[in-house]
Amino acid sequence: MILPETKHNLKISLHGGHSGEFCEHAEGTLRETLEAAVSAGFTVYGVSEHAPHTESRFLTQEEIAKGWDIARLQRNFADYTRTVDALAEEFSDRIMILRGYEAEIVPTATYRAQMWGYREQRAPGDPLRFAFDYCVGSVHYVEETVIDYTPELYTRAVEQCETFEAFVVRYYSEVVKMVTTLEPQVVGHLDLYKRFAERASFGQERLFTPRIRAAAIIALEAIRSTGAILDLNTAGWRKGLGEPYPAPWIIAEANHMGVPFCFGDDSHKPADVGAGFPEARDYLLANGVAEIAYLIKEKGSQKVTQRRANL
After folding, report:
1. CATH number given to 9-310
2. C-alpha pair distances (Å), 104 with each of 14, 65, 167
């Protein structure tokens, strides 16, 4: 599939496609999500379901309420790989589906082996055969405490770091470690640490300090060195933040350094597909970004290629 250099390049998302079949905090089915993408005119849609937790201490309350344990999460993920493989083939005459996963960075000491394992091609017929096209690398944890789940857990993570500034600096150090360790093709919601800042009484004015800026630049340098794309994630608007991820000052720094951006709807239900994309285009243009990056499988190739297009 060759994409025209037109407005249709807006119809590409590389982060999202979470569905209630495989993610405890999502809704709908993967088929319904892909049908929504087709109806919305998408040309490429990247599905990046969450990689499963490997230790019970990281189970969410929703997972526990559903009776999902670690073994069930692993089965769900294996089911996801088979489902997305089948749907990518079924929908191939209407849309290019890229098969991805969103990496987790816990447990801190052992996540590399687990997340890299998902990228390896295994023998056909292996029930745990993972043949993903790409990886979205995201940081949802600081000090092994999830930061985008509840204000209470967010506050706990901040308190473990003693100060809000130290918390954000630690967050960026985890981004650097994740990027250099996993080398993902896409880096998700770079400033997720702002998710509950105001509700936890850490005001927006404290989200930008010289130390935080320095830590962010180190993270951006790591992203640039690996050739990854930054996710312009529209979920920030849906979460009531007044802006997407990342903030304008990060957009400016990344653009100055030549770090590219892609669109990501971070959809967790069919209605989220493509949400906020026209606004996201305006947001990038207003902050000096003139082109968008995306991934595509060229005809006859099994590997994704990064391409660019004017906004």
Report:
1. 3.20.20.140
2. 17, 21, 18
